[in-house]
């Protein structure tokens, strides 16, 4: 929900909707924040000819851009297939933007997306302005063995 609140502040609450498994707010908004699972279900429903009642903004013909945050979850054992299914099923006219701060094989993923979607994929990498590429904030790992 923090992205939803950020977008409401930036674009106005009337222009932003939220759709999760538990919440549906302003589903006809031009900008929708939703879980990847909800988007995947919309894509599957559309390909099966099922009409969903999510609102006008989710008519797939009207979708210009799909932003997938935390794209490194593509490699997740349990949820990664959802990201993959979205890339494969997303309408060709919709631009895909995949964001990740921790993706180690970004060039490989960009090449894969180019192959799947049959369009050039541009990889944009951000190099932090810190000495030796250090993180701007600390990264702490914890291990628990029960």
Tell me the β content. 5-15%
Give the CATH superfamily of the domain at 35-133.
P-loop containing nucleotide triphosphate hydrolases
Order of helices and strands: HEEEHEHEH
Largest sheet: 3 strands, mixed
Count helical runs: 4
- Helix-and-strand structural type: alpha/beta
* Second-tier CATH architecture of the domain at 35-133: 3-Layer(aba) Sandwich
Percent range of helical residues: 25-40%
Overall pLDDT, averaged? 83
- In the CATH hierarchy, the third-tier topology of the domain at 35-133 is known as Rossmann fold
CA distance, first residue to last residue: 32 Å
Strand ordering within the main sheet: 2-1-3
Number of strands: 5
CATH top level label of the domain at 35-133: Alpha Beta
Compute the gyration radius: what is it?
Answer: 17 Å
Entry summary:
This is Helicase ATP-binding domain-containing protein. One of its GO terms (biological process) is nuclear-transcribed mRNA catabolic process, 3'-5' exonucleolytic nonsense-mediated decay. Helices cover 30% and strands 12% of the residues.
